[in-house]
């Protein structure tokens, strides 16, 4: 036993293949330097359009070469492994309390039935139930969400014992019954399985019917005093604090059907008033931190988005292996699980899985000093989240932390006394949103909060278990995906242009390699300009007869060939290694182009306008509700264009521009190649156009061949044809 106490609760191993990657990276750097040498050596001397086109391409290549900083992120990836058995042997009777925050904002785009599935999944963790406290933050202030949570609190009395008895996974009822097979070999389990499923379907029907009617029946309103709070609600953006403790875990009567204690369950809708800025999700999280500190005050906090249910009932114990390790755990502020999604198609048509980012890049981040906080699926140390600096002298005695004084007030008293903690005026003249809690004033409040925690001396950990910890809902339309990435790109650029730029804010506080690891993400938005240039200018120059690349008979073509093909082959191999498909990789390349030419462009423009005072930051919530037609097309991997948007205008214009240039380039080769060897001179530009044409095939199909409601809007098609023809006419 004494020997076991010395064994760590987790271990870290360096990823395989690092030397191979370093050799590939070094060869790529050499080839890119040769490309720069070619650009400088063969710079046109006559000036004019060719000179400007050449300089522009050189600048674009310089910037894309700067993106090789991403190599630094991947130089030292690490894997983490936990030992839950050792944790149980040492601390099973002294496990700390966990406060779990679930955030929702609008029942019209985040259905209450989805929200309560997430709540039930985290209530059912394989963990002492009396040590779990689940808080639902409803920023929509909706009685529909409150009603759904009330129904879930009743259903939990049969659901939690069922999960524990049969050790089922996942523990979201919807996810479980969609994938589980009826246990025909065990009559007892089959009978109970059918009973639970029937109860869930009845609850689901009640909630969905009520949500559709948008009205709580009078008989239901009389069942709980909490509904009276909505008698004083003016609107979604103008109401008092609503706080209801639906299950008080301290109450001896709060038991499931088998007599076991239930987790504490709390509903919170913080106060909203038109004259006060509510600071979006960051404000909701800070209200939860304060309120929970009065009710349960657990030393560890898990926060999840309302669409990201728990897929692994052991995740809490996995996280505790990091926090409670006697030698390595005292300076860990948060343990981040990668974002994964349950509704991805086979080939991930919108590249929503971010399969390489959540794998290779985040593990590289971890090896460089710790991953960024990504907003969901993250376990926090409360004191670190509340702004405390790391102190080597201060180590937590986990065996005594649970014996601290407990709150004695009744649930009804706590409901009243805690309301002030979620009021609009509580944060005035305080450090909340500045030095305490989540940071305000940025669309990616999670990333900036994680950075500040790291700069206070704390360490972060990425844990990427074989069974994913959390599964969410990925965007099911192109515009949803592009808008989501616009918010991320805009937020990261705001961080780069603020005092929180890692180069100076992190200087002397975090390792240099971690500072540099943040940079490629901070400059996502700036990638729009070189990508737009590369996607449009070489094609227009092809129409005009301006060559921008070496002849294929020249040895100078080799660095270009190597840089493009080696990078593509490595990217494909890496994608397949992380579980993707060849078609999935190609979809990823397409979305890479779409995001850089639209999401990043509008994110860049909005950031500059925000800095100049012409616009304000907004928090765009990705809709989780789609109709059956959209779902059907998504499952068939048909790209959903849908409603008109400036983003679609740009995508369609670039696609049409390149197909016109490609046809023009082929025509030039066929008609005059024999006399002037045009193919030798323009082969690389024709190839570039051809690749862009092939990658845009779904755009051509949506604009000219599809007849369903997900096709490219007619107005967008006409507008793009006009813009593409005009650009080609000017070029020629």
From TrEMBL:
Q: Which residues bind UDP-alpha-D-glucose?
A: 110, 139
Q: Which UniProt keywords apply?
A: Cell wall biogenesis/degradation, Glycosyltransferase, Golgi apparatus, Membrane, Transferase, Transmembrane, Transmembrane helix
Q: Name one GO cellular component term.
A: Golgi membrane
Q: Which GO terms describe its molecular function?
A: cellulose synthase (UDP-forming) activity
Its annotated compartments are: Golgi apparatus membrane
Topology class, membrane:
Multi-pass membrane protein
Task: Write out the residues that bind Mn(2+).
Answer: 281, 305
What is one Gene Ontology biological process annotated in the Swiss-Prot or TrEMBL record? cellulose biosynthetic process
Active site location: 139, 446
Q: Which residue ranges does UniProt annotate as crossing the membrane?
A: 21-39, 51-73, 518-536, 556-579, 600-626, 646-670, 682-700, 712-731
Q: Which Pfam families match?
A: Cellulose_synt (PF03552)
Signal peptide positions on this chain: none
Q: Which residues form a coiled coil?
A: none
Family statement: Belongs to the glycosyltransferase 2 family. Plant cellulose synthase-like E subfamily.
Stated role = Thought to be a Golgi-localized beta-glycan synthase that polymerize the backbones of noncellulosic polysaccharides (hemicelluloses) of plant cell wall.
Q: What is this protein called?
A: Cellulose_synt domain-containing protein
């Amino acid at each position: 036993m004494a020997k076991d106490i010395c064994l760590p609760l987790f271990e870290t191993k360096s990823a395989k293949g690092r030397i191979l990657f370093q050799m590939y990276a070094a060869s790529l750097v050499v080839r890119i330097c040769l490309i720069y040498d070619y650009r400088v050596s063969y710079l046109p001397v006559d000036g004019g359009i060719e000179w400007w086109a050449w300089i522009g391409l050189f600048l674009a290549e310089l910037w894309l070469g700067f993106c090789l900083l991403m190599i630094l992120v991947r130089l030292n990836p690490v894997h983490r492994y936990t030992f839950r058995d050792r944790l149980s042997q040492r601390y099973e009777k002294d496990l700390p309390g966990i406060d779990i925050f679930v955030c929702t904002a609008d029942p019209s785009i985040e259905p209450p039935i989805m929200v309560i599935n997430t709540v039930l999944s985290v209530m059912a963790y394989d963990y002492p139930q009396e040590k779990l406290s689940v808080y639902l933050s409803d920023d929509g202030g909706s009685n529909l969400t409150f009603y759904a949570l009330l129904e879930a609190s009743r259903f939990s009395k049969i659901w939690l014992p069922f999960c524990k008895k049969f050790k089922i996974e996942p523990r979201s009822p919807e996810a479980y019954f969609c994938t589980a097979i009826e246990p025909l070999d065990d009559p007892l389990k089959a009978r109970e399985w059918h009973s639970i499923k029937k109860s869930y379907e009845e609850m689901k029907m009640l909630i969905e019917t009520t949500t559709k009617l948008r009205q709580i029946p009078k008989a239901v309103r009389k069942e709980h005093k909490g509904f009276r709070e909505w008698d004083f609600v003016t609107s979604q953006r103008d109401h008092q604090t609503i706080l209801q403790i639906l299950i008080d875990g301290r109450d001896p009567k709060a038991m499931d059907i088998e007599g076991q204690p239930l987790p504490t369950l709390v509903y919170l809708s913080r106060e909203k008033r038109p004259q006060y800025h509510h600071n979006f999700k960051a404000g909701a999280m800070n209200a939860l931190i304060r309120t929970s500190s009065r009710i349960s005050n657990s030393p560890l906090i898990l926060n999840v988005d309302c669409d990201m249910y728990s897929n692994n009932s052991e995740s809490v114990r996995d996280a505790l292996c990091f926090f409670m390790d006697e030698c390595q755990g005292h300076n860990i502020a948060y343990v981040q699980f990668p974002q994964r999604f349950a509704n991805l198609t086979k080939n991930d048509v919108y590249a929503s899985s971010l399969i390489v980012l959540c794998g290779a890049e985040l593990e590289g981040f971890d090896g460089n000093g710790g991953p960024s906080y990504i907003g969901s699926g993250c376990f926090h140390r409360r004191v670190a989240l509340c702004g405390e600096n790391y102190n080597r002298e201060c180590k937590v005695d986990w065996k005594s932390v649970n014996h601290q004084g407990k709150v004695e007030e009744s649930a009804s008293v706590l409901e009243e006394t805690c309301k002030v903690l979620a009021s609009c005026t509580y944060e005035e003249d305080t450090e909340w949103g500045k030095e305490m809690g989540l940071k305000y004033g940025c669309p990616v409040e999670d990333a900036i909060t994680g950075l500040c925690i790291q700069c206070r001396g704390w360490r972060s950990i990425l844990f990427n278990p074989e069974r994913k910890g959390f599964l969410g809902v990925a965007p099911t339309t192109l515009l949803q995906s592009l808008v989501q990435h616009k918010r991320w790109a805009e937020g990261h650029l705001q961080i780069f242009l603020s005092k929180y730029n890692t180069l100076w804010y992190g200087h002397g506080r975090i390792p240099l390699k971690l500072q540099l690891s943040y940079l490629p993400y901070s400059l996502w938005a700036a990638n729009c300009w070189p990508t737009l240039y590369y996607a449009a200018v070489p094609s227009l120059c092809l129409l005009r007869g301006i060559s921008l690349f070496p002849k294929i008979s020249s040895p100078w073509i080799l660095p270009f060939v190597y840089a493009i093909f080696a990078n593509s082959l490595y990217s494909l191999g890496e994608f397949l290694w992380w579980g993707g498909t060849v078609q999935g990789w190609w979809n990823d390349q397409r979305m890479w182009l779409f995001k850089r030419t639209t999401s990043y462009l509008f994110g860049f423009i909005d950031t500059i306008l925000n800095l100049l005072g012409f616009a304000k930051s907004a928090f765009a919530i990705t809709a989780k509700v789609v109709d059956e037609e959209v779902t059907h097309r998504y499952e068939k991997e048909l790209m959903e264009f849908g409603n008109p948007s400036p983003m679609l205008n740009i995508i369609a214009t670039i696609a049409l521009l390149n197909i016109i240039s490609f046809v023009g380039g082929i025509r030039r080769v066929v008609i005059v190649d024999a006399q002037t060897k045009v193919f030798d001179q323009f082969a690389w530009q024709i190839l570039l156009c051809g690749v862009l044409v092939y990658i845009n095939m779904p755009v051509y199909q949506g604009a000219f061949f599809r007849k369903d409601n997900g096709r490219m809007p007619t107005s967008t098609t006409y507008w793009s044809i006009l813009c593409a023809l005009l650009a080609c006419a000017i070029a020629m």
